[in-house]
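Action item from last week, closing it out:
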Amino acid sequence: MINIRKLEAELWESADMLRSGSKLTSNQYCMPVLGLIFLRYAFSRFKLVEQEILANRPMRNGRKLPVEASDFKAKSAIFLPKEVQYDYLVNLPANVASLQLTGLNGNTLGSLGEVVNNAMELIEQQSEQLHGVLPKNYTIFAPELLSELLRIFNNSALSEVGGDIIGRIYEYFLNKFAKNVASDDGVFFTPKSLVKMIVNVLEPKEGILLDPACGSGGMFVQTGDFVEQSGMEANSKMTFYGQEKVEYNAQLCLMNMAVHGLTGVIKSGDEANSFYHDAHNLDGCCDYVMANPPFNVDKVNVENAMNAGRLPFGIPGVDKSGKSFSNANYLWISYFYSYLNENGRAGFVMASSATDSSRKEKDIRQKIVETGHVDVMVSVGNNFFYTLSLPCSLWFFNKGKAEDLKDKVLFIDARNYYTVVDRTLNEWSEWQLRNLGAIVWLYRGETDNYKRLIQDYWRYFSQIAGKYDNMVWHTENPTFEDIFQAAKSTETTFANSLKQHQEALKATKKRKEKAELKAVVAELEAQVTELRESVTVAEEAVWLTSKFGYDGVYQDIPGLCRIATIAQIAEKDYSLTPGVYVGVAETEDDGVDFTQRMNEIHAELAKLQTEANQLMAKIQQNWEALK
């Protein structure tokens, strides 16, 4: 079984080591490396489909007829001539010029970079969706560097396209590049946990999906995954449309969709500037709208935006000149609403300030609230983005709300609920996403979904317990709290064993003993990692059931969630800030007398100030002596 996380990290480390040894910047390196991952995907997909075709291929003169481009088109796959196939490229000799190869246009291919450029042109010839999209600047690489990059992605594990291994690798690299590569026109990558939260709440099944600020296409990819996991085929159920002003980002998007087997219509350039163009003529037509637009944009021309329409609630505030909008956030919000059909749903990321901005924006927000189509509002904490540390909000509209929910909005304050990735980045783990989604299910009365999640927790813990004999529950009917304690105890036992074996490994000098200890340490490291994850999952199970029980009974939780009516929202001046409604979580009494502790702190502070004054006097005295 492939350890996908380990594979991702190893491939990135290898590729990034090559970059750091070259003179190329991350910006120069990003697109061609992602292009090679796409090329590797195309080859794996080609070989898989080729096997399927050959299995039923008719015979002639005792030999099967060769495959043709039309055979692949019938299976929604790209036909690859020999010159494009990855094993051909990776096995080319160092002296490519000696082969006297010619390109698509009859030109001589004198270097490996020129051969890879030609391969990209040949692929574009086979796919209308990819025409003009793939990178063709591989001559920027030294031949040795490009050859090594091709070798890195020749990993046999990447042949397993059925498990979407290469799609995962592409997203992983896109994620990594996003930390270093930010376009001047905006961020091209929306963190996966935010995208998955949007998709999980909207629950797309079939119809038209528009992302009018699509960046690298994360909304399409996660929607495709959601639909496929529901047992349906994404390309037959969903129609994907995207707009992206920055052509570089649109190219990333189309490659991203391609490595996930998705097709869509993506427009880029000036005609795709969503402020001034409805590039696909989808106003009022969309079943789903998802987006992470650039926040707080100014200088958007009032006249051009008004001529483009999609402003059902009037225009936001303009600046002193009267020619530009002072902030485009409510332009986006109006567009997202306007694109929806009579039962459409929208989910999007927005600056936190938009939930209670004033003046014209407040008037628009009031009108939106009064439609009854605001469904869910979620506050997100700091550090969820790679290029900004500010908090944000997730907004959800639903024109097809159930009758009993038309007067209600669910508010979730998730600012204190996240997993720390590193010093500058937070995210929601998979189980945290499911827990937040469970709150939405309960708000909608979908308790069966909640109970299935609880069953998934039990199933997970049963599998873990089956691997470790010493993970035992001390009760016949354990709670998740019992499981947490058992997992924690087992993890501690294995961690102590790992430490002992690591110390023994350092101490031994015998080659055979060292090899045996290395194997034991590697196995223990994997087990400790798995057990630590089980402890974390148990914590999430406790978090959820301590609030809503094992059967899923919704209740407002101070500091976390509350269902408010439109009348209650009106009382709060139509604010859509979750914190206004959910309040502050109750804190347990720690038994400390506040007044007494404050007196102790003041006494400690006074003592420190006295010592500081004495030290300063001593320093001054010494300084005077030196004069």
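Closing note: The chain has a mean pLDDT of 87.
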